[in-house]
Design goal:
This protein has 403 residues and is α/β, with parallel strands linked by helices. It is built from 13 helices and 13 strands.
Length: 403
């Protein structure tokens, strides 16, 4: 066992060779990507987590925490920190001590990938969605606050990717955010802070595959609390075999909270619609959806997302939602096995009305055969029309009725 406790050597990211046609385009979107990959088995993950627990990892050159002492030395002791630590203890007890049995049931290694869309300046968010326009909204599934965005017992056997509403640094913390809930309930994903201490690049996402979901949480923020461990009895093989594997897509939207007093040279009321923010967020959304552009699999795939870039980032719900739906339409419409799940969940008292507005908007689009190209170009051509507190979905519907 001695070698397990020696300080590990963090392996380098290896660039993957991709068969790509540089000139190939899909409806104006270049598909050229750069991929870097690290693959680790669960014993290696266990070793790294042990070092993080005993705070034996060297401090990051970026001065960002990479040990778990941020949890058990937290000056502001709160429920969410306790929940993360309790989940980590359950992981060490149940997973580590039954590693051989679990390895036999699920031999998959844990994969970390950095995917970067190259030549970002060549992307045009004035896309043309007419080709193959699909008016079928069945691939969009809406969920409200009654649903748990982080876990779904009914679909535990499917392949599910949850979008992590990350900031530019992917990692855990002490505030009970959506990102922390994802990583905190899947401790194996926490080593991403060792593997990727640099901030994400302009067109980059980070994908983590095959991490176990150990716990279920409830509530949000500082009120987050541990609900239950999902491994009731690790001596029962049936229970181990049904452990839910989570796949995570980390993507950072524009941090508009730090730009509240910015000089608006474009005379646009909603910051999300300024060119530099709109283009950046659209490219990030394209990077997420382009992950599924190939014939991934014959099995159903579910992508869980929601009010990405809202909350602490102060993003506009309507614009961020439209960006994701347009990006999803481009890449997901050609694959019937891929389903886009959208969760209207935040701390706002208006979440129910937003969910209803979104449903009404999608129904109107479907019933009137309005293509995404028309909607998207209307938004791009009328940026100055929208006020900060406007219901943009209603404005789009009203203008279409007039026209």
């Amino acid at each position: 066992m001695k070698e397990l406790f020696e300080k590990p050597y963090i392996i380098e990211w290896k660039e993957e060779k991709i068969n790509e046609k540089e000139e190939e385009k899909e409806e104006g979107i270049k598909k050229k990507q750069k991929k870097e990959k690290i693959e680790l088995n669960r014993k290696q993950i266990w070793c790294l987590l042990t070092h993080m627990f005993f705070t034996t990892m060297d401090e990051s050159i970026h001065k960002y925490w990479n040990n778990f002492d941020i949890w058990y030395h937290c000056e502001e002791s709160n429920n969410c920190v306790f929940s993360y630590l309790l989940t980590l203890f359950h992981y060490f007890i149940h997973i580590s001590l039954n590693d051989n049995e679990i390895q036999n049931i699920n031999p998959k290694n844990i994969i970390f990938e950095k995917i970067t869309l190259e030549d970002n300046d060549n992307y045009d968010y004035n896309i043309d969605c007419n080709k193959g326009e699909c008016n079928n909204i069945k691939w969009i599934n809406l969920y409200d606050k009654k649903n748990n965005m982080l876990f779904d017992y009914n679909e535990s056997q499917s392949i599910e990717f949850v979008v992590d509403f990350a900031n530019s640094y992917v990692g855990f913390g002490i505030s009970g955010t959506q990102e922390e809930m994802i990583l905190g309930s899947s401790p194996e994903s926490c080593i991403i802070m060792l593997l990727s201490p640099n901030p994400m690049k302009y067109g980059q996402i980070i994908v983590i595959q095959n991490v176990y979901v150990i716990a279920k949480f409830k509530n949000y923020g500082r009120n987050l609390s541990f609900e239950k461990c999902l491994i009731k009895d690790c001596n029962k093989k049936d229970n181990i075999s049904t452990l839910f594997l989570r796949h995570i897509i980390a993507a950072d939207a524009s941090e508009l909270d730090i730009n509240e007093n910015i000089k608006n040279t474009e005379n646009i009321k909603i910051l999300d619609l300024q060119n530099k923010y709109l283009k950046r967020d659209f490219i990030k959304a394209i990077a997420i959806m382009s992950l599924f552009q190939s014939n991934l699999l014959n099995q159903d795939i579910f992508i869980r997302s929601g009010l990405w870039g809202c909350g602490a980032f102060c993003g506009n719900k309507f614009i961020k939602t439209l960006i994701q739906f347009v990006a999803a339409h481009i890449f997901l419409k050609v694959n019937p096995n891929i389903h886009f799940k959208f969760y209207c969940i935040d701390d706002s008292l208006q979440e129910d009305s937003f969910s209803y507005s979104l449903f009404s908007f999608l129904k109107y689009k479907h019933d009137n055969h309005i293509c995404w190209n028309h909607i998207w170009r209307f938004v791009l051509n009328n940026k100055s029309l929208f006020q900060l507190d406007d219901n943009i979905f209603q404005i789009i519907i009203q203008k279409n009725k007039i026209n």
